[in-house]
Amino acid sequence: QVQLVESGGGLVQPGGSLRLSCAASGSIFSINAMNWYRQAPGKERELVAAITSYGITKYADSVKGRFTISRDRAKNTVYLQMSSLEPEDTAVYYCNVVDLAYPYWGQGTQVTVSS
Questions:
Q1: Nearest to 90 by CA among 54, 68, 64, 62
Q2: What's the pLDDT band for 88 if we cut at 50, 70, 90?
Q3: CB pairs under 8 A, 24+ apart, for 12-17?
């Protein structure tokens, strides 16, 4: 199995920045995708950013230009750099790693954007 450990969440004022990290460990065979999802109260879970094994990235329209996803393959770690944060970004953020087509999820980390 793969275990995911997330960190970096917290409270930040509008316009501020946060950097989320997610480290994968365990019986890893071949990670072909690493992603960040988020879920706000009363809303559906949505894909925020994704990165493939080739380094190709994609973003939700709502965060494009403000968020950056990256990965360190040697450390099996994915990052989400969040800038110009807005109250609408408030949510629980979940790391997602796909290994041999099986998805693993982190425990979630709370991001709150408020003044």
A1: 62
A2: very high
A3: 12/85, 12/111, 12/112, 12/113, 13/113, 13/114, 13/115, 14/85, 14/86, 14/87, 14/113, 14/114, 14/115, 15/84, 15/85, 16/85, 16/113, 17/81, 17/82, 17/83, 17/84, 17/85
pLDDT in tens, 2-54: 899 999 999 999 999 999 999 999 887 777 789 999 999 999 999 999 998 88
List phi, psi (to 5°) of 113: -110, 110
